[in-house]
Design a protein that fits this description.
Blueprint: E1 5-6, E2 15-16, E3 37-44, H1 55-64, E4 69-76, H2 80-92, E5 99-100, H3 107-115, H4 123-127, H5 130-135, H6 138-144, E6 164-169, H7 170-175, H8 185-197, H9 212-222, H10 226-233, H11 243-255, H12 268-276, E7 282-286, H13 295-298, E8 301-304, E9 310-312, E10 321-322, H14 328-353, H15 362-372, E11 376-378, H16 387-402, H17 408-425
Helix pairs in contact: 9-11, 11-17, 16-17
């Protein structure tokens, strides 16, 4: 149900029903907090670098709100895929922290959390706080909003940090006589052939999890046609047994002819290691990897949009949710943290796009140029496709497709079976 402001001239009072699918809610942030409120959260430690993800924004918030609120983080050494699986377990045992990340990467689970009222509608906070709302790019706010106007994912201010493209090793390209990143997909495949001919492995790939790296490339290429771009915009496609599905399967198979011998049945950490050790010339990933590349190796690394001037981005995947069931003081503190994160991100964006970040390297300069270069934005498949396909099918059947145990047509049929299984589980 959408919300409207309803005014009656026969009455001397006004009923404000919100602007966003949140009628009847009367949540106010307490003006005074008598003692420091602890807000539990779980965040991951990057297994490749040992870096604590989101440590900077957590530290800044705890310093700014010392004495009032404190984010108490449990740091875990898990992959993002493992963290997402644990969200489901923690929900069943009623042990979820107050703030959770990555929820939108699990489309069906996310919808279940909404249906069962396990997460808070943030609409009244955002729309009744003009400062917060004005920080958020309209496209980002729209991406984080449900059809009825409710908002369960606190948006970042911008899509500027949510984009994925290709990191490439300039030195290895030069060794193969290649001076720039390919602009078209034909040039991309020619580049792979040329690198291979010079004894250089073109791509760092993997199949575990949701097969993130190869799926980025395959979906970006699919979106090069009008039909494929429309397919990538569909939420929960009703079939993969079509031209788009067959093309995607064929591209996946082709990609693995240009990767390392250890690419099957491993996760992204192996792809990352193969790239930063110089064993492969390219790896697709997002902005966040810039800080994960060793400084000495980073001198050789560049960033480029996918061929056809494409970036993959779904800013809603970076929205964080507040778990219902906590007392009001904790939830109010969590709201303050999410607003702080939006502001923190906005300030980062402004400095970043103005080129004022200290220590800005060539990768960052490349990324800014790509973001400002009018790219076609392709939606992230992880927020579009059913969870059975992502969590059970891709990791098991992409290796079988690569090894020739199943054909492209059989692969698309198995994808369709995931749709039927997903629908049966609803």
């Amino acid at each position: 149900m959408s919300c409207k402001k309803m005014v009656s001239i026969a009455l001397v009072f006004v009923f404000f029903w919100g602007l966003c699918g949140c009628a009847g809610k009367e949540k106010q942030i307490s003006a005074n907090v008598e003692e420091e409120v602890s807000i539990p959260m779980i965040l991951t430690v990057d297994s490749s670098t040992g870096n604590r993800n989101e440590e900077e924004v957590v530290g800044a918030f705890n310093q700014a709100y010392a004495g009032s609120y404190r984010i108490e983080v449990e740091w875990i050494m898990e992959t993002e895929e493992e963290y997402r699986k644990n969200l489901k377990r923690l929900n069943v045992t009623d042990e979820l922290p107050a703030v959770i990340t990555d929820l939108r990467m699990l489309p069906s689970y996310y919808q279940m959390m909404i249906k069962e009222k396990r997460i808070e509608d943030l609409c009244p906070y955002i729309y009744e706080d003009e400062e917060w709302k004005e920080m958020i790019e309209p496209a980002v706010l729209e991406a984080c909003s449900e059809p009825d106007g409710s908002i369960y994912l606190a948006p970042l201010s911008t899509a500027a940090f949510s984009c994925s493209g290709v990191f490439w090793n300039e030195q290895l390209f030069q060794e193969a006589g290649i001076s720039e990143f390919p602009k078209t997909w034909k040039e991309f495949w020619d580049t792979c052939e040329r690198l291979k001919a010079h004894g250089i492995t073109p791509l760092a790939l993997h199949t575990e999890g949701t097969a993130w790296a190869p799926m980025l490339l395959a979906t970006a290429e699919l979106a090069d046609s009008e039909e494929g771009a429309e397919f990538m915009k569909k939420l929960f496609p009703d079939s993969y047994q079509n031209q788009s599905g067959l093309q995607l399967a064929a591209t996946l198979k082709k990609l693995f002819s240009y990767t390392t011998d250890d690419a099957l049945h491993v996760d992204f950490d192996v792809s990352y290691s193969n790239f930063v050790s110089g064993k492969a010339a390219m790896v697709p990933n997002g902005y966040w990897m810039i800080d994960q590349i060793p400084e000495d190796f980073g001198e050789n690394v560049r960033f480029a949009p996918f061929p056809g001037n494409k970036l993959i981005s779904s800013p809603e995947t970076f929205g964080w949710a507040i778990v219902s069931g906590y007392d009001e003081a904790v939830k109010e503190g969590a709201v303050e943290f999410l607003k702080f994160r939006t502001k923190f991100n906005k300030e980062e964006k402004e400095k970043f796009l103005e080129g004022k970040n200290p220590g800005m390297n060539q990768m960052m300069i490349d990324y800014i140029d790509a973001y400002k270069g009018g790219p076609q934005i392709v939606p992230n498949y992880q927020v579009k496709w059913n969870s059975v396909l992502q969590e059970e099918i891709l990791g098991e059947y992409i290796p079988r497709l690569i090894d020739g145990e199943i054909t492209e047509k059989e692969f698309t049929h198995i994808e369709d079976e995931s749709i039927w299984q997903y629908e049966d589980e609803l």
